[in-house]
Design a protein that fits this description.
The chain has three helices and four strands; from the N terminus they run βββαβαα. By secondary structure, the chain is of the alpha+beta class. It is elongated.
Length: 119
């Protein structure tokens, strides 16, 4: 995971997000959440990610704020589903069937969370 600094401001009700490590990348959104989600997708699409810069000496003008964007390099990569056999205890399998739990979905969510919190 890499954490990139970004400068955000609100101009005429639109959130603008500038990411200095990606020259020319200016993202707009209705909300900060929307802008950061767009930024994450665009950053991941860049392929190989550069090392994040240090923003300690950055001069901000009034209305600008620095936020940090955590980016997982593998997020959004190949999302093709594959079949994979796993071994789990019988009681968990029985419980999952009885309660209608989709084991593949649970495993996918658990692995995704594990990788997002890694580092």
């Amino acid at each position: 995971m890499k954490i990139y600094p970004a400068i955000y401001s609100v101009q005429n009700g639109i959130v603008e997000l500038l990411i200095p490590d990606f020259p020319g990348m200016l993202i707009e959104g209705k909300t900060l959440v929307e802008a950061t989600e767009k930024a994450e997708k665009l950053i991941i699409a860049q392929g190989k990610l550069p090392e994040p810069s240090n923003m300690n000496n950055t001069h901000l003008v009034e209305g600008e704020h620095i936020i940090m964007l955590p980016i997982t390099e593998y997020a959004g990569k190949n999302t093709k589903r594959i079949r994979r056999n796993v071994t789990i205890p019988q009681y968990l399998n029985d419980w999952a069937k009885q309660t209608g739990i989709n084991v593949s979905q649970v495993l996918t969510e658990a692995l995704d969370q594990k990788f997002k919190t890694a580092d």
